[in-house]
Amino acid sequence: MFCTLNTHKVDMDKLLGGQIGLEDFIFAHVKGQRKEVEVFKSEDALGLTITDNGAGYAFIKRIKEGSVIDHIHLISVGDMIEAINGQSLLGCRHYEVARLLKELPRGRTFTLKLTEPRKAFDMISQRSAGGRPGSGPQLGTGRGTLRLRSRGPATVEDLPSAFEEKAIEKVDDLLESYMGIRDTELAATMVELGKDKRNPDELAEALDERLGDFAFPDEFVFDVWGAIGDAKVGRY
């Protein structure tokens, strides 16, 4: 279903994306129990944050406390969303699933078909940040990043600068606020497009050219511009 970095737990903040460190461990999570849940949409916002694994599977990354979904105990973080009202979502990106959920009419019941990750390795503790003990030779410094691409070879690249790292975090927060998704790769692309732009209009033009399918609203683009600007001058 998906992989996590350096933990066997269903921790969607550790979800493997397009980059891994040279000293990271990868844990694979396989399909467990399937379930079908009816949800009454009493609020416009369901309280879900959606992510995906880049291979056609969308997952629940976060559930907001006190939200509509939070009161349905059969639905959990890590669940794969297979279908909404019988419409298969296999092959959909996380933002497409988030949009479908948002467009569901308020005051009606809809059906979610989910698959939870199999529970395993409960006695294994999370790998510590210091790595494995021992005095053997180490390969590299751990400051490199392996970037995985759907097309073309994987490459080892330097880690983002402190400014880029903070800007990516802030833009990722904006993606969750506006779209109900978290996607560090998308956020990194937006920061890369925006870090040398002189004004919001130039950023909007660059986003339309590279990421036009998202149709980002003007207020979102302006907030992204502000987030990148704040990170540049150290306003964290």
Automatic annotation (TrEMBL):
Residues 131-143 have a biased composition (Gly residues). GO terms for cellular component: cell cortex; cytosol; dendritic shaft; dendritic spine; glutamatergic synapse; Schaffer collateral - CA1 synapse; synaptic vesicle; vesicle membrane. Residues 126-147 are annotated as: Disordered. Residues 36-116 form the PDZ domain. One of its GO terms (biological process) is regulation of protein stability. One of its GO terms (molecular function) is identical protein binding. CDD domains: GH2_GIPC, PDZ_GIPC1. Pfam families: GIPC1_GH1, GIPC1_GH2, PDZ. InterPro entries: GH2_GIPC, GIPC1-3_GH1, GIPC1/2/3, PDZ, PDZ_sf. Belongs to the GIPC family. This is GIPC PDZ domain containing family member 1. The gene is GIPC1.
